[in-house]
Amino acid sequence: MRPPARPGVARSSAPASAEPAAPASLLSDFSPDRFGVIGLGRMAQALLFPLMASGLVPRERVLAVVASEASVQRLAEAQPGLAVGTDPAAAWRAQALLLAVKPQQLAAVAATAPPPAAGAEPPLLISVLAGVTLGRLQALFPGRRIVRAVPNTPCLVRAGLSGLAWGDGIPAAERLWVQQLFRQVGEVLELPEAQLDAFLALTSSGPAFVALVAEAMADGAVASGLPRALAQHLAHRTLAGTAALLHEQALHPGQLKDMVSSPGGTTIAGLRQLERGGARSALIEAVIAAAERSRELA
């Protein structure tokens, strides 16, 4: 049984301003004959490899582009049968393309993109570049249908969050296919582009903030007498269990804090130190700073 809602706090099963992705049971009619991937770093691999494993994108349809011959050799050994090279020409001719280079490489990569074939259906371009807006992408890649995606690092273990903002003219079948792509690695939300900077700050920068909390908690446990390896394990499991409890019981964080804090007990003594040190304000400002930096990158 769920605990009662905290006074003044409404409980909702879905975010108020985000649109949940289409149900997982829906399948798209869109099936690109070729799927290009320009930039095959950790995030692109986290997205691509489950797609190939699920059959949503057959391996033989993938055209991947990396920066060096050393990367080509490494991926060829790790993923036999995957077409990997350093020349982006073939990838640009694909019906759908994942753009996953570093933002500072965008201009150079855009210079290699030919215009889409005249009279052909506009190809689909999915960008995972932090802070790069739909408007800028459309200006750099005219004639393409653009999706701006913001996946986060937990996608590496298929526990991610991905925010999607749509450019103009994307058919329903292609939207559904993109949702299926990102659903392979976690939860998918459709958002107005204006909210993507805050989404990125919370979900993409957030794992680093949480990792810092985990490290600090483990350090405190070591200082209190626990071995390092045990302290790290316990810190990680405490964070994972707390997140599961908040999510599965739809608890407001303040409810869980109050559940754990006995009058005059150990937890309230620790919380007092956190408030004295400005931990709450520091985390608020960290998210705001990350969002502002994302807007600057645009």
Summarize the structure.
The chain has 298 residues and is an alpha/beta fold. The chain has twelve helices and nine strands. Helix 7 crosses helix 12 and helix 8 crosses helix 9.
Primary descriptors:
298 residues, alpha/beta, Rossmann fold, ProC C-terminal domain-like fold, 2 domains, nine-stranded mixed sheet, elongated, disordered N terminus
Structure overview:
This protein has 298 residues and is of the alpha/beta class. It has two domains: 19-192, NAD(P)-binding Rossmann-like Domain (Rossmann fold), CATH 3.40.50; 204-297, Orthogonal Bundle (ProC C-terminal domain-like fold), CATH 1.10.3730.10. Helices cover 46% and strands 13% of the residues. The protein is built from twelve helices and nine strands. The protein has helices spanning 42-54, 69-78, 89-92, 106-110, 134-140, 172-183, 196-204, 206-223, 228-248, 253-260, 266-276, 279-297, and strands at 19-20, 35-38, 62-65, 83-85, 96-99, 124-127, 145-151, 160-166, 186-190. Strands 1-9-8-7-6-5-2-3-4 form a nine-stranded mixed sheet, with helices on both faces. α4 (106-110) links the parallel β5 (96-99) and β6 (124-127). α7 packs across α12 (279-297). The protein is elongated, with a radius of gyration of 22 Å. The N and C termini lie far apart (45 Å). The model is unreliable at 1-14 (pLDDT under 50).
